[in-house]
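Suppose you are handed only these lines of text.
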Amino acid sequence: MGLKTVVYFLPRPPKKVFVKAEELPPAGTLKVKEEFFMVRPSDGHLRILSRRCPHLGCTVNYSSGEDLFICPCHQSRFALTGAYLSGPAKKDLVKIKWEKVEGGIILEIPG
Ligand code: FES
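From them, the structure of the protein bound to FE2/S2 (inorganic) cluster can be written out as follows.
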């Protein structure tokens, strides 16, 4: 009987990021950051979405022409809510948890 090697990948801990209040998007706009989108529809409710594509992890871009998020690798498309629309991803963009703190918000980006 031979020995088998089992490899475990431990999840990385979430990364906390502080965003100053003045860097948040005004109602009806969005901002594109390196790792996430900050979307604030006209109702003013702030939504933070990961830019990591749920398919194979490419960085999703914002298409102003179509007003959608589109992955450049295999063309998965997502609504500004993060909802999956089409392509091989088959899942929504991950919503990033955030909390309001003095002078801004703190995000918890999954590892
Ligand atoms: S990695 Fe985004 S669609 Fe494949």
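What can we learn from it? The two ends are 37 Å apart (CA to CA). The domain at 11-109 is CATH 2.102.10.10 (Rieske Iron-sulfur Protein).
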